[in-house]
Specification:
Wheat Germ Agglutinin (Isolectin 2), domain 1; two-stranded antiparallel ribbon; two-stranded antiparallel sheet; 10 helices; 6 strands; 62% helix
Length: 218
């Protein structure tokens, strides 16, 4: 069964219309596309209304997000993939406007990294248990990373294989800070997959954040 949308005039299946109990056929008079377009235009022309409503009803949005966590996560992932530059610029502006929060976050991250380093065996065992219980999530995460960063993914696999067969030896000391800890292979050039600098988790993070600072092997 079909009906004509009173907004665009196009005949469409009933499933193309939102449900409406007071209507004779149980569907609204506007199709979903027209209704969404109108709602979007109205929200853009009345931004204060939406903001005030959200402030007055904070629990509604929180409950909806909790009940639709998978949907929100996937939607955010798709938006980020389609708006990488826009998100990076927004993050840069936020960091410039919130230097105290950035410093606090860096301090907490540093403390967490040191905890991981001093509890290496505990973390590794917990990671092994989680990986054994969640092979599908591991595979999906690796697939998405390889799709987004193909060069980095190939370089990481090459390092892991080289360490496994003995072509590369993973040291016990970070080449960045000199502390004894678990180290990771950092690439300055992914086209040379086995040319790595062995860094602890903290120094590895700094190396990626400060891309303009070259790292030298000691």
């Amino acid at each position: 069964m079909q009906k004509a949308c009173t907004k665009c005039g196009i005949e469409k299946d009933l499933e193309a219309f939102y449900r409406q109990s007071r209507s004779k056929d149980g569907r609204g008079s506007w199709c979903r596309i027209c209704a969404r377009t109108y709602a979007k235009d109205w929200r853009e022309s009345n931004p204060e209304y939406g903001r005030c409503w959200r402030e007055a009803n904070p629990e509604y949005g929180r409950r909806w997000k909790q009940a639709n966590a998978a949907h929100c996560k996937e939607k955010n992932r798709q938006w980020t993939k389609a708006n990488c530059e826009r998100k990076a610029e927004a993050c840069r502006r936020w960091r410039e406007a919130n230097p105290e929060k950035v410093a606090e976050m860096s301090r907490r991250w540093y403390e967490t990294s040191r905890w991981y380093e001093t509890n290496r065996e505990r973390v590794i065992e917990a990671s092994r248990r989680w990986a054994a219980a969640n092979p599908e999530k591991i595979a999906e995460k690796a697939r998405r990373y390889a799709e987004k960063h193909p060069k980095a993914s190939r370089a990481h696999r090459a390092v892991c294989l080289a360490v496994k067969v003995g072509k590369l030896v993973r040291p016990d000391v970070c080449e960045g800070c000199g502390h004894e800890s678990y180290v990771e292979g950092h690439h300055t050039d992914y086209s040379r997959p086995l040319d790595v600098v062995w860094l602890c988790r903290s120094c590895h993070g700094k190396a990626h954040r400060l891309k303009s600072v070259p790292l030298q092997k000691r």
